[in-house]
Specification:
It is a single chain. This protein is of the alpha/beta class. Helix content is 15%, strand content 27%. A seven-stranded mixed beta sheet has the order 6-5-4-3-2-1-14. The chain has a seven-stranded mixed beta sheet with strand order 7-8-9-10-11-12-13. Strand 7 and strand 8 form a beta hairpin. It binds zinc ion (ZN) (2 copies). One zinc ion binds next to loops.
């Protein structure tokens, strides 16, 4: 019998700001967006500029889960073609206590003078909902945890068919939250972790809200995750730098995320 489909496709992996340079073409310059197929369900983790590379046809209406409202995680929403298709439903989950809060949070950016109109004024059936601690999208269980990041950021855990995917982007290690994260990510089949920096860079970057690949490996080992994908690459990190970092780690279960990369759980 075939295994149930639970697949992550990397659409955008750059952090902070999109970049279009030949030196960044292998890992990609689009900002945070990951496409998850789980059975019949389609979920996106973040809506950065990578969303413009996303499919637009689905068997069931897709959901977009936003970890937080920093621009690099929302850039793609305004130009995602599906939102303009009359009658087609897309749900966008935003960290907020309720529906009204979710809508007003998103409308702070997507409204004049920053953008021509609110996303809910598009021709499509766009529904904005709060990203709560625990809910389900069809057969997919979604759980969230508050991480450590300026202004906050949500860590997301998806469970489907006995497999677990954890997305911990925009996270700076501090010991209380790291301990919570170890419990939250326990036994993950695939762990995505913010490795924007490496250890040598960190002293100059404290308080920026990001982590290191080394911390990702420690988390992976302590929570018993099977595979680690380092995400949220710094715009200053070229392909050459990321390849060198990946080679230094030299583990078959640890990769730096590349745009277009596909991982089956
Ligand atoms: Zn970010
Ligand atoms: Zn952020």
């Amino acid at each position: 019998m075939n295994e149930p489909l639970f697949r992550l496709t990397v659409l955008g992996t750059r952090g902070s700001m999109a970049i279009c340079k030949k030196s960044h073409s292998l890992f990609g310059g689009d900002t945070s967006c990951y496409y998850v197929q789980a059975g019949e369900e389609s979920l996106f983790l973040d809506g950065g500029s990578g969303l413009l590379c996303a499919p637009t046809e689905f068997s069931r209406p897709p959901v977009i889960l936003l970890t937080h409202l920093h621009l690099d995680h929302l850039l793609g929403l305004g130009m995602y073609p599906r939102l303009s298709r009359r009658g087609e439903q897309t749900q966008i989950f935003v960290p907020a206590p309720d529906e009204e809060g979710a809508l007003s949070a998103l409308d702070r950016l997507y409204r004049p003078p920053y953008w021509p109109l609110s996303l809910t004024a598009y021709a499509g059936d766009v529904r904005v909902k709060p990203l709560l601690p625990s809910f389900s999208v069809g057969v997919v269980q979604v759980q969230t945890l508050e991480g450590n990041h300026p202004g906050g950021c949500t860590v997301i855990r998806l469970q489907y068919a006995g497999k677990t995917l954890v997305y911990a982007t925009d996270y700076e290690r501090d010991e209380p939250s790291f301990t919570s994260l170890i419990g939250f990510a326990k036994g993950a089949d695939l762990l995505l972790y913010d490795g924007q920096y490496v250890k040598e860079e960190l002293p100059a970057k404290r308080g920026f809200g990001h982590s290191t690949a080394e911390d990702g490996i420690e988390l992976m080992e302590r929570c018993g995750a099977k595979r680690l994908l380092i995400v949220h690459h710094d715009p200053g990190s070229t392909d050459e730098m990321l390849l060198e970092r990946e080679a230094r780690i030299h583990r078959p279960d640890v990769h730096y995320a590349r745009a277009g990369g596909v991982f089956d759980l």
